Structures are given as structure tokens and as C-alpha cells.
Amino acid sequence: MTASTSPRRTAGPAEAGDLALARDGDGAAFGRLVAPLRRELHAHCYRMLGSSHDADDALQEALLRAWRGLGRFAERGSLRSWLYTVATRTCLDLVAAGGRRALPVDLGPSSERAVVGDAPLTEVAWLGPYDDAGLGAGPAAPEARYEQREAVELAFVAALQHLPGNQRAALLLFEVLGFTAAEIAEMMDTSTASVNSALARARRLVAERVPSRTQQRTLRELGDARLREVATGFATALERGDADALVALLAEDVTWSMPPLPHWYHGIGPVMDFATRIPLTTCGSWQHLPVRANGQLAVGSYLWDEAAGAHVSWSVNVLTMRGELVGEVTSFVGAEHLGLFGLPASLP
């Protein structure tokens, strides 16, 4: 791990010079200071908030606060630590104002049969997918427990949403970013004892909700060839309406959910009843593009639109692997999700 990713690194001469210029009102110097940290700060905001769009807003607000308050930055700590302090407090304000984000599995039991005409539930704040491009494969600091991509996996981010804001922040700062309890206490303006208490509670809940085997470990063991085979097989089965090919990819206890649609399905019987009655037969013609989301295998779906004369963006399907088979399909329905990954709005 390079020194540049350590929470406690000291400023080099170039950074110190830009810091002096930024304090004198040089916006370009401030931009140079924060540019190397933008990606990881954005990922931190997503983990806190469960939404890429909210993370965009939070990071913009945090950097504005940091720019306005740069004169209060005490150089006894690193600029990175201070920016994480500002970003965390910004996210905590948003968590307090907006609550937590959910997946369909949080709302009620699964459906045994396909729900035809399922309508979006707009009053729920839904968890969204995340473009993990640019995130490092390893930990953000030597002291961190989680790899950076482990910490954006759907199960982990969904579990975080069940934590109060202070526990969410403490867990991320300690386990994902490698800050000490004492540093976190200063960042959150609380005591070390309170941080340790928040950490203990957060760890218990995460242990209950997050599988012990991470997707990163599973994906490494499967290898690129098998992952391409699964992604291509999933896409081809939908495009051809091939139920047998789809069944061959799915685990017996597979789940399929489609936020913002509230109903979800658990088990090969209900999942295939849904698949055969809706996406495989009645939706129309599909096309797909491969993508990576939340550190996991994913496929972007496009559905034929007669008026547009093209396949238009429909959903990002994040696949959670359980061994060789797909254990969960989370289809984030909405054209706005594909735009997050730089995918085109339509396919000819």
C-alpha cells in the first residue's frame, strides 16, 4: 500500500504550496488538492447514503464546505483526514434529513407468483447501483479490514442502511478507511468510548446481514472466463426467451428483485414463474451490454421501444454469485442508472 492512501500521511512540498495558495483564495489550487481524493471521497459518500446521485450532491456540498472553511484546517492532521471529516459530517446531515435507503427485500415477504403490472413504489427511497470504476482492488489503508470494492458490494451497502448514521460512519471510517477510534472521535466530535460502542453495535448488525464470503473472493475464484460466460448466458437467455438456459445459471434459493418495483421473488420456482411470464415472454425484444457495478458482475438491459425505433435503456442487473451460480439478481429499473456507467441511452 502506498503512502498516498494512508489516512495519516503528511503533505509534500507541492501540496503545501497549493494549500497556501488555496487559503489565499486560489480555486485552481484547491482543485488540485482535492482532485486525487475525489474518487475515494465519492465512494465514501455512496457507502454512507446508498445512492450515487446523493453521493454526487454530498460530495459537491462537502467540497464547498471545505473550500469555505479551509482557513479552519489545522495542519496537525492530513488534508485527507480533514476532507473525510467534512464529507462524513455532510453525509450525516443528509442521513438525519432523509433516513435510509431500501431494497424490496426490506419491505415485506417475497411473492410466490409473478405480479403482472407491478407499479413503482415512488414513496420509498431506494438503494441504487454504483459504478466502481477507478476504485482500487485492495484496502484503502493498511489498517482497513475491508477491500475498497468489498465495501461497495450490494450486501454490505444494504446492511449499512440499517445502521444509525453515527454507527454507519464509525464503521466505514474504521473498517474501510483505517482511521483509529481516537481520530474518528475527533472527526465526529464525540468520545473514543462512544466510537468504540458504535463500532461494536455496527459490527454485530453487519455480521448478521452480510455473507462471510465476499463477492470479491468469489469472483477471483471463478475467473474472468466463467464470469464472461455467466454474463453472456444471462443476457442471451433473456434475448432468446430461453427459460432452460436461464434456469441453468440460477441457484435453487435465488432471489430476484427490481427496485423501484416493490415485489420480489425467492426460490427457483417463484423466480422462474416471474421470469417466464414477464421478461422472457411479454416485455418484448432485449439487448444487453456488460458492465461492472458494486464490485460485482452486472449487465445493462435495453428494451425495444417501437416509437423510438431502438432498444432504449431499461435497467442495470447486478448479479450476486453464489459459487458457480447466480444467487441474486437485483435489477435496478430506470434509464438514469445506465447513465451512471457511461452506457448509451439506446442501442440501434
Give a written overview of the molecule.
The longest helix has 26 residues, at 215-240. By secondary structure, the protein is an alpha+beta fold. It has helices at 13-23, 27-34, 38-49, 52-68, 79-98, 154-160, 165-176, 181-187, 192-209, 215-240, 243-247, 268-277, 335-340, and strands at 250-258, 261-266, 286-293, 296-305, 310-322, 325-333, 346-347. The model is unreliable at 1-6 (pLDDT under 50). The chain starts with 12 loop residues before the first helix and ends with a strand. Helix content is 46%, strand content 16%. A hairpin with a 2-residue loop joins β1 and β2. The protein is globular, with a radius of gyration of 22 Å. Strands 1, 2, 3, 4, 5, 6 and 7 form a seven-stranded mixed β-sheet that branches.
Question: What is the strand and helix layout of this fold?
Answer:
Elements: H1 13-23, H2 27-34, H3 38-49, H4 52-68, H5 79-98, H6 154-160, H7 165-176, H8 181-187, H9 192-209, H10 215-240, H11 243-247, E1 250-258, E2 261-266, H12 268-277, E3 286-293, E4 296-305, E5 310-322, E6 325-333, H13 335-340, E7 346-347
Parallel strand pairs: 1-6
Antiparallel strand pairs: 1-2, 3-4, 4-5, 5-6, 5-7
